[in-house]
Write a structure and sequence with these properties.
four-stranded mixed β-sheet; Metallo-beta-lactamase, Chain A; 13 strands; 28% strand
């Protein structure tokens, strides 16, 4: 089995989900010896296109997105999902860059020279709600709700890796981390960090659950194409029983 089998081809191309919303599958990344598929979500907003959790830059992909509308917003929704932003910023210099609160202060980000214009967390685009989930060590992830399609966008708060798509030797570690389908959750170390957020974290997760989404898209693994509200409650039962 090759590491590419961990991904969801075709890769680095637009895949329509519902009106004004697409996903792009890419990867894999090597994380703790686990080949990790990655995913970007693209939304049409009032002034153009929003790229949520950008995947590796690809010129042909950028051109395909630009045919839908000008690329106006590049979004880094968590502390781990900014590493491909620099190439997209270079290719789309007029786009506004958005980041999870506190991301700009992290040493790696400062050293990278990445331009981050605005923080997520407040009203920014019509039809999109935001909720900041806090954790220990300054961790933040910002969940988005695309209200017209009742779609929730996450990055790492749910990971749902299909064991059959992983190398045999990687499967025990993925199970130990708690990120295997059909019972995918945040990995165990991230759950520990979020628990340090106490009542604020639990309250934020409860708010996301109250959105009652139809579908849930996240960065790693098979996303929830239907029954999103029930699937999300299952994935978050470790913090909101």
């Amino acid at each position: 089995m090759t590491v590419l089998q961990a991904t969801y081809p075709p890769l680095d191309v637009l895949k329509p989900v519902v009106e004004d919303l697409w996903v792009v599958d890419s990867g894999p990344l090597a994380v703790a010896r686990i080949p990790l598929p990655v995913r970007m979500t693209i939304i049409r907003v009032d002034d153009g296109m929003l790229l949520h959790s950008p995947t590796p830059y690809d010129r042909t992909l950028r051109q395909a997105i630009a045919e839908l509308g000008p690329i106006r917003h590049l979004v880094a929704p968590s502390f781990a999902h900014w590493i491909f932003m620099r190439e997209w910023v270079a290719a789309c210099p007029d786009a506004i860059t958005w980041a999870a609160p506190g991301l700009r202060d992290r040493r790696q980000v400062r050293r990278s020279g990445l331009r981050l214009d605005r923080d997520l967390g407040g009203p920014a685009w019509g039809g999109i709600e935001q909720c900041v989930i806090p954790g220990g060590g300054g961790f933040r992830e910002v969940a988005l709700l695309h209200r017209p399609s009742r779609t929730v966008l996450l990055s790492d708060l749910v990971q749902n890796l299909e064991p059959a798509k992983l190398p045999v030797m990687a499967r025990p570690l993925a199970r130990l981390l708690g990120v295997t389908a059909p019972d995918g959750r945040a990995p165990v170390y991230l759950r520990a960090m979020i628990r340090l957020g106490g009542e604020d974290a639990a309250s934020a997760v409860s708010r996301v659950l109250a959105w009652e989404p139809e579908r849930v898209i996240f960065a790693h693994g098979r996303w929830f194409e239907q029954d999103g509200a029930a699937e999300l409650r299952r994935s978050f039962r470790w913090i909101v029983p």
